[in-house]
Amino acid sequence: MTWSWRLLLLLAAGFAVTMAVLPHPPKVPIDGDKYQHMLAFGTLTILAVLAFPRTPLLRIGERLSFLGAMIEVVQSIPALHRDCDIMDWVADTAVIVAVLLVVAISRRMRPSAI
After folding, report:
1. In the chain, which stretches have pLDDT less than 70?
2. 31, 45, 65, 71: which sits with the fewest CB atoms below 10 Å from its CB?
3. Which residues contact 22 (CB under 8 A, 6 or more apart)?
4. What is d(CA 54, CA 23) in angstroms, rounded to the nearest whole number?
5. What are 61-72's pLDDT values in tens digits?
6. How far apart are alpha carbons 18 and 22 in whole angstroms?
């Protein structure tokens, strides 16, 4: 079953990175750049926990936060006409930590949970 979560994670990460590096991404119904970042990385975090259930949560958080940082670095390329904003990375990391805290608490309350 983890293979399906891994495939979904790969597709979601590909979509998120593609949307982040497009010079003129399409409009989406979520208004506000920070909310879009938080929705994307919250989703990626949930999928990563499901896709890699035995991986330490700290490692998942570190890797996803690094992905967020790399997106911001790529967005600093002038030809993309995007804005590199460290606060976007902070928003990404904050939601990653929040989701992982909920997962950690859930795991402590019910060892058979996620």
Report:
1. 111-114
2. 31
3. 80
4. 37
5. 999 999 999 999
6. 6
Evaluate the CA torsion angle 36, 40, 46, 49 in order and state its sign: negative
Q: Are 100 and 57 in contact (CB under 8 A)?
A: yes
- HEC string of the chain equals CHHHHHHHHHHHHHHHHHHHHCCCCCCCCCCCHHHHHHHHHHHHHHHHHHHCCCCCHHHHHHHHHHHHHHHHHHHCCHHHCCCCCHHHHHHHHHHHHHHHHHHHHHHHHCCCCC
∠ CA 49-100-87, rounded to 5°? 115
The owner of tokens 């909310």 is: 35
105, two tokens: 């608490």
Q: What residue has token string 């060892």?
A: 111
Biggest CA–CA distance in the chain, Å, is 49
- Predicted pLDDT at 27: 81
